[in-house]
Amino acid sequence: MLFMGFAMNTFLLGQDGNGCETDIVPIPTYAVVLSLVGGTPRSVAVPAEAKVALFSATGNFWLKAGAAPALPTGDILDGSAPELNPAGRLVSGVTSIGLVAPTACTVSIGFYG
């Protein structure tokens, strides 16, 4: 898939020397880094071609699709709560990802087509 003039890697599991699938994925050709300040929500656009996003962070963060979440300070029981530290998510049809952290941390997001 072409994105900004280059092909976005597809999310595929690698194989070992015996042809068995591993948990290893290719390096993303499109990745972003967000430096989060504690309690300050941020949003990042999801590339239109992206189907999968993988997350890695130096600290805890909360994620919400389509909106920048508020930092949870109590119970959220209506189904609208953000997720804590997701490793990866399917993002087809998602236009933005919102993040917030309780303390300063850095989050990297690798996108795959």
Provide the fold topology:
Blueprint: E1 2-3, E2 6-7, E3 30-36, E4 42-45, E5 52-57, E6 62-65, E7 83-84, E8 88-90, E9 96-100, E10 105-112
Antiparallel strand pairs: 1-2, 3-10, 4-9, 5-8, 5-10, 6-7, 6-9
List keywords for this structure.
plasmid, Jelly Rolls, NAD/NADP transhydrogenase alpha subunit-like protein, 113 residues, 4-stranded antiparallel β-sheet, mainly beta
| Share of β-strand residues | 35-45%
Q: Supply the CATH class of the domain at 30-72 and 82-112.
A: Mainly Beta
Fraction in helix: under 10%
What is the strand arrangement across the widest sheet?
Answer: 3-10-5-8
E-strand count: 10
Q: Main beta sheet, described?
A: 4 strands, antiparallel
Q: Which blocks of ≥5 consecutive residues have pLDDT under 50?
A: none
CATH architecture of the domain at 30-72 and 82-112: Sandwich
CATH topology of the domain at 30-72 and 82-112: Jelly Rolls
In DSSP terms (H or I, runs of 4 or more residues), the helix count works out at 0
Which structural class matches the secondary elements?
Answer: mainly beta
Q: What Rg is obtained from the alpha carbons, in whole angstroms?
A: 15 Å
Quote the distance from N terminus to C terminus.
Answer: 6 Å
Write up this protein.
With 113 residues, this protein is an all-beta fold. The protein has a domain at 30-72 and 82-112: Sandwich (Jelly Rolls). Helices cover 0% and strands 38% of the residues. It is built from no helices and 10 strands. The protein has strands at 2-3, 6-7, 30-36, 42-45, 52-57, 62-65, 83-84, 88-90, 96-100, 105-112. The strands form 3 sheets. It has a 4-stranded antiparallel beta sheet with strand order 3-10-5-8, with no helix packed on it. A 4-stranded antiparallel beta sheet has the order 4-9-6-7, with no helix packed on it. It has a two-stranded antiparallel sheet with strand order 1-2.
